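User: I'm putting together a teaching handout on how multi-component assemblies are represented. Below are the sequence lines for each component of a complex, exactly as they appear in our records. Could you produce the 3D structure of the whole assembly as structure tokens, so the students can see both representations side by side? Please keep the chain order the same as the input.
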Amino acid sequence: MLLTTPLHANHIALGAKMGEFAGYDMPLFYKDGVMKEHEWTRSHCGVFDVSHMGQATLSGPDIAGFLERLTPSSFRDKKINRAQYTVLTNEQGGIVDDLIVTRLSDKEFFVVFNAGCKAKDIVWIKKHLPLDSTFYHMKDHALIAVQGRWAERVIHEIFDFDPRDMSYMTLARAQTRYGSPAMISRLGYTGEDGFEVSVPNVEAADVWQAMLAHSEVKPIGLAARDSLRLEMGYPLYGHDINDETSPVEADIGWIIGKDNKNFIGADRVLKERAEGPKRKRVGIALLGEGVAREGAEIRNIHDQKIGAFTSGGFSPTLKKSIGMGYVPAENAKIGEMLFINVRGRNIAAEVTALPFVPAKTKTIKKKAA
Amino acid sequence: MSDLKFTNEHECVKVDGNVVWVGITKYAQDALGDLVFVELPAIGKKVKKGEYFAVVESVKTAAEVYSPVDGEVIEANAAMPNDLEMIKKPVGQGGWIAKIKFSDASQLAGLMDETSYKKYVDGLA
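Assistant: Of course. Below is the structure of the complete assembly, with chains in the same order as your input.
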């Protein structure tokens, strides 16, 4: 029996093609199809039901210190309402999951984690949680992403709250029209300016409908969510990062806090950062015709296998095939020529800087108060 | 009723003497969604019945196109990769991906006619 989100009936009513994702029956695409949905998000605005993702709060007297044990990032000096992308590391320096952690108060953080890792994450966090601290799984909350150039306007109208002064990677509180608290974070998984809105399950459909009532807004399924994030080079857990890849190899070493030396798995992670990783996640664009997907072999110019695509597909924006994968450090330079083997055919490709498509996330225009 | 033949794998086949023109059905097109690439076979490629000779790529997925006969590719629709909308045309009028010459006509016996194929597709829903 598949799980459903509070918006399941809305997806069906919109004629979505549904499919299983992380145990949930989710919309893969709606009537326009993945290509148009992708383009609409880039040119106008899309809304995404991401209620399958895990949401929780962590609270306790030294909860920042706890987070610095669980992740390589710094949280003690994190300002209230600031969000941080980070990972949970395991003892071997691999990645348990990637997540967004936002400071709500001195003693409380809001975390959003992957649907497919929910059970694992909860066990992992509770196993390490200090006795004086609390993990609260917000199963009673839905999460809706609104992404694209109209997102700011949509938020402004629906919540009667002006988000224009919000910087990228910050959170603000607002109210739904029924007076329930909503947490609005300016971030996303598409590279567009946008927001993720956490609201009580019972009001999810109302917020969803209000967003869709906007002429510039269309519903976007998981298929376009994937092609949008691929263009941004954002890693997808279970594909581009996993229990064995370290954050340094994954080329997200920027999440490592300057003063954090005591997180789980620090030995390997800090050693790799000091010495350089043996392999590295890189973006790869195909120069020849064809489409390479996850699993396609990456070969060097001597036709020797050096890796495999961990994600790959056609970029609707660039009109060519892009992907990512791990290659030895000596092959990781931008412009490195490679082959991607698709059904026995070598297609010329090159290591390409990420993101493939420039991000339009709102740059921080002032210091947070 | 058309004289087209259909496979279980949603190829649409036009038989022209000892040559088949092979494309994909509307059902396959709808299942694939927006196409982004067609990988054509080399002229002269030998294929066996049930083997793929071309690949149709959409944003979502890749689909292999299977030969309904043992034979040899004598022509590939070179215009199609530059105009992917062509695949939506009738197989005899631009919607074909390749033409395959065959010698054993009995291999065509198992293909469906349009009525049977419609029933088959309805049964998949």
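A couple of points students might notice: Helices of chain B lie at 26-32, 114-124. The mean pLDDT of chain B is 94.
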